[in-house]
Amino acid sequence: MPSTFFTEAPHWRWLIILYFFVGGLAGGCYFLASLIDLLGRPSDRPLARLGYLIAFPAVIVCGVLLTADLGRPERFWHMLLQSATWRPMLKTYSPMSLGAWGLLVFGGFSLLSFLGTLAEGKRRGALAFLRPPGPIGTLVSLLGGLAAFFLVSYTGVLLAVTNRPIWSDTTLLGAVFLVSSASTSIALLLLLGSRRVFLVGGLRALQRFDTIVLVLELLALGALVVSLGSVARVWLSAWGALLLLGVVGVGIVVPLLLHLRAQTPLSSAARAAAVCVLVGGFLLRVVIVLSSESI
Amino acid sequence: MPEPMGFYTDTTVCIGCKACEVACKEWNQLPATNGGRSTLSGDSYDNTRRLDGIHWRHVKFIEQFDADRRQGRWLMMSDVCKHCVRAGCLEVCPTGAIIRTEFDTVVIQSDVCNGCRDCIAACPFGVIDINPVSGTAQKCTLCYDRMRAGMTPACAQACPTASINFGTIRELKQKAEARVGQLHGRGERGAYLYGADDKMLGGLNSFYLLVDKPEVYGLPPDPKMPSRNLKPGSLWSALGAVLVGVVGIISFRMRGTDNA
Fold first, then answer.
1. Cα(A198)–Cα(A44) distance, integer angstroms
2. Which of A275, A288, B126, B179 could form a cystine bridge with A7, CB 3.0-4.6 A?
3. What is the 3 state secondary structure string of chain A?
4. Total-model pTM
């Protein structure tokens, strides 16, 4: 029996699963918004606006979920400041320590972009410079996009930097979470934008993006199972069935088939595909977290 | 600076009296489980079941009997935090609550811990858990308070058979090696030390004399540091980020036939 099976579970359950999912959407939507703002056409700007408007509230939800999950929520700030000296608390080799700072940094960028987006209303406000194409807005989007990549992948690295079965028996969880965050965030933007005909150009690009990302996700999941070696046998159970049917079937294969069928991203087939991707992304986190917790 | 201190537990003389468990609970004022009502595990004479936030010592009962129970033996082992020289819990702790003391032991400061539970997942031995009273992660402190006063930890003080030995690591290793030699001389060729040398996590400051495979005692055969996955995990994530980024750029750049 591998040594990881002699350890105890940390009781990370639904709040953490939700954090992984919502955090993935926060980072993913911000990355997409930056991508659209920096590389899209002017007609795509409302789609990027949607991304920024999702990212900041989502990252607030992340903070609430993580704080609520602590054994002593009133000490959440101990993650950032040393309680005895009030000096910054940062361990570059601890993913949770880095993650706390990453969340704060990403929260800052997502707030700036959120304010910039709100300022771009009917009457252009003073803070509109926080959004591209201006130089400051471009810088905020670029740096925020990098922070978003960190946010969506560090959670997988955090699970790997433990001694728990499955989590620490592979080094691919960060990459899997990253790809899944991209697919779920694209799905969310496709879903929310699918009733706005004037966004069809950007939505079509997103749909194309989603198709390739879903294929990447399938490959990443296959590599994950292979990398687990004999440990993957623990998924010869209900968890494995959920992974196969829920994550791969509902979350990847069905949406890929629906994308092939969907003539336009405004169709009901495209909307159904997006819902399936979101369900699959959530189930992925459920399987990864709870299948190890149950050992 | 004091010398590194620790435990050497000779499992061959443990009689399973659980005096160590009781002494630990009393000294550290650890609460009873289940409101003090006893529930039987059905697992030999072990109703403590495992180490956790309110059980910092746990005497394991391992029954090795034939099917007809005519031939067999008992293995007993008083388990505790290993106070690893390279400690996974200390490495991942994001609040700095877990510290290495002047005695080279590993202690969780309960007033700093915020109960994130990363240390529980990082410990290769499954030693740490949340104490429901404090809401923080807790484990054996090797009686840090007693050691600072020049006293022996409560469990070692209470052990009636000297199965739990307390002292400097240097002295304990000499004692343990002599005991292994003695057992080998008497024909118990399976006796060996678990965690005494620096190959296992730089050395365990609480090491054991065992007479069967580590797995039999519920100990990992090859415990590792959690940080082994940090670099490769980060690199794979970075590769994933580059791939997704490139695909995203291509998706938005190749839009020749799209309606703007």
1. 9
2. B126
3. CCHHHHCCCCCCCHHHHHHHHHHHHHHHHHHHHHHHHHHCCHHHHHHHHHHHHHHHHHHHHHHHHHHHHCCCHHHHHHHCECCCCCCECCCCCCHHHHHHHHHHHHHHHHHHHHHHHHHCCCCCCHHHHHCCCCHHHHHHHHHHHHHHHHHHHHHHHHHHCCCCCCHHHCCCHHHHHHHHHHHHHHHHHHHHHCCCHHHHHHHHHHHHHHHHHHHHHHHHHHHHHHHHHHHHHHHCCHHHHHHHHHHHHHHHHHHHHHHHHCCCCCCHHHHHHHHHHHHHHHHHHHHHHHHHHCC
4. 0.93
Report chain B's mean pLDDT, rounded to a whole number: 93
Contacts of A240 (CB under 8 A, 6+ apart): none
C-beta separation of A223 from B239 below 8 A: no
* Choice among A115-119, A211-215, A218-222, B92-96 with the minimum mean pLDDT: A115-119
Which A-chain residues 227-286 have CB contacts (< 8 A) with chain B? none
Q: What is the pLDDT of residue B149?
A: 95
Closest by alpha carbon to B122, among B47, B204, B30, B223? B223
Give the residue on A whose Cα is nearest the Cα of B132: A71
Rounded Cα–Cα distance for residues B123 and A15 (Å): 22
**Residue that wins the pLDDT comparison between A194 and A112:** A112
Interchain CB contacts (distance < 8 Å): A and B: 218
**What DSSP line would sit under chain B, residue for residue?**
-PPPEEEEEEGGG-----HHHHHHHHHHTPPPSGGG-----SSTT--S-S-BTTBS-EEEEEEEE-TTSSSEEEEEEEE----BSS-HHHHH-SSS-EEE-TTS-EEE-TTT-----HHHHH-TT---EEETTTTEEE----SHHHHHTTPPPHHHHH-TTS-EEEEEHHHHHHHHHHHHHHHHHTT-TT-EEES-STTTTT-BSEEEEESS-GGGGT--SS---GGGGHHHHHHHHHHHHHHHHHHHHHHHH--TTS--
What integer best gives the mean pLDDT of chain A? 92
Nearest chain B Cα distance for residue A111, angstroms:
22
Residue A123's pLDDT band, with cuts at 50, 70 and 90, is low
Of A10, A79, A176, the CB nearest to B95: A79
For residue B52, give the chain A residue with the closest CA: A8
Q: What distance in Å separates the CA atoms of residue A199 and residue A220, rounded to the nearest whole number?
A: 30
